Amino acid sequence: MGNIRITAGCLLPLLAVLLASNVVKTQEPATPVPASPHVIEIAAKTFEFIPNEIHAKAGERVQIRLRSTDRPHGLKLNLYPEGASEDGPPGLVFDHPQDEAKVDKHHERVIEFVAARPGTYDFKCSVKCSMGHDHDRMTGKMIVDE
Description:
Elements: H1 8-26, E1 38-45, E2 48-50, E3 53-57, E4 60-68, E5 73-77, E6 92-94, E7 101-103, E8 108-115, E9 119-124, E10 139-145
Parallel strand pairs: 1-4, 3-10
Antiparallel strand pairs: 1-2, 4-8, 5-7, 5-9, 6-8, 9-10
């Protein structure tokens, strides 16, 4: 077999092809990176959530990190905004449906969902943490803005 000779006249078209293929590669669409969730930390202690009013934007993935400071507590979110009919799809959409989230003393529980519709959503403690009617005060609101 013979030797291959590259002349200056052949080198320029070859360079042009190599550069063009590199440009095409850099213009390929990047793999979409999932948006990080909006993290909201809530401390639960006897008779109150801190904070008891939280905010998110419609369409946003929300991650609530519920931490108990003194005894077992729970968090139950209303899936439909105040005044909305419960006939249609819920306004808060969970990947893994759950009725409530319970957390033991000095532990943390992560609750993740998409805030699909704007509105005000009530939440309350789902664990009877005291005798009497004071437990009814352990409530809060999640406001989902457009």
